[in-house]
Design a protein that fits this description.
Homeodomain-like_sf, six-stranded antiparallel beta sheet, DNA-binding transcription factor activity, Arc Repressor Mutant, subunit A, 49% helix, 309 residues, Jelly Rolls, single chain, alpha+beta, five-stranded mixed beta sheet
């Protein structure tokens, strides 16, 4: 399944000017290739001068906005394409692949990531009461939506604060709350409301997701995970797949293999030690599943990554 933005309608001149300013700000405050941290703790800025290879990564809850370029994010067999006219939201932690598909030295890929704190969403809903409109989404923890002028305006005001560091501590939290409010009012705002609603099944699924992220190297029994989520095993399996596009076992497998790859690449663990560390008892099973996810056995994959670097 592909979530590709529809052909855009003609833009208002003001919106076009706002997008140009966003690109200029990110260009200025993200001088280095890759991820540039900012003085606003939850905000990171990205730059890339060339299209990238496919990268396996773990998306934490966040808002991602593209100022220049284009990126494809894949969740299992679903593709999410976003560009300067569309933003992407991850409402839960998800193992995905990402690939910058449009970038050049003259027109680099420029984007931002703003972390989303589900606790802050809960506080905002408690204070503001019901907000938003009925969701047109399917409950998936990843979605692409058109970037409208009010949200873009709030994001711009947040980035402008980087020019006045003395104001950040006082004003940045206020602007971040406004950004969350704009997301809650968006057509797919129900997705975010559900993760903050303690009575929703989606919120209970997030408890299972958090447990898996903390205990992915442990044996998985669906009955135990269902107790963590306070759901029946069948309901957990159904809702987990609705949110993440995969079963709990598939999700755990991706966490294990991504961590094993990191251990071998960054900490120089050998193949058997990395597999054992993340919970595999059978080296052959580890190698087989690793090859299926990354397209090559561990040693060949590592050699390819190191040569590319």
């Amino acid at each position: 399944m592909s979530h590709v933005p529809a052909a855009p309608a003609a833009e208002e001149p003001q919106h076009e000017a706002q997008r140009a300013e966003l690109a200029q700000l990110i260009d200025r405050f993200a001088p280095e290739e890759g991820i540039n941290e900012s003085m606003i703790g939850a905000l990171a800025l990205m730059r890339g001068s060339l299209p990238s290879p496919i990268v396996h990564t773990l998306y934490r809850p966040a808002l991602c906005i593209m100022a220049q370029g284009q990126k494809v994010v894949s969740l299992e067999d679903e593709r999410y394409v976003y560009d300067p006219l569309h933003y992407l939201v991850a409402s839960v932690t998800l193992p995905v692949t990402g690939q910058v598909t449009l970038a050049s030295p003259e027109q680099p890929y420029l984007s931002l990531r703003l972390d989303i704190d589900p606790g802050e969403i809960g506080k905002l809903i408690a204070e503001a009461g019901p907000v938003g409109v009925p969701s047109r989404g399917n409950g998936r923890g990843l979605y692409v939506e058109r970037l409208d002028a009010p949200l873009l305006d709030a994001v711009l005001r947040l980035l402008r604060l980087l020019d006045s560091p003395r104001d950040i501590a006082m004003l940045a939290p206020l602007v971040q709350r406004e950004i969350l409010y704009r997301l809650l009012c968006s057509p797919q705002g129900q997705v975010l409301r559900d993760i903050a609603n303690a009575d929703s099944q989606t919120h209970r699924v997030t408890r299972a997701i958090d447990w898996l992220n903390q205990n992915f190297n442990e044996p998985l029994r669906i009955e135990d995970l269902a107790r963590v989520a306070s759901l029946s095993p069948s309901t957990l399996h159904h809702r987990f797949k609705a949110v993440t596009a995969m079963s709990p076992l598939q999700y755990q497998k991706q966490l294990r293999l991504q961590e094993a790859r990191r251990l071998m690449l960054c900490e120089n663990l050998d193949v058997s030690a990395a597999g054992y560390r993340v919970g595999y008892e059978s080296p052959s099973q580890f190698s087989r599943e690793y090859s299926r996810l990354f397209g090559a056995p561990p040693l060949r994959d590592l050699a390819r990554l190191r040569n590319a670097g």
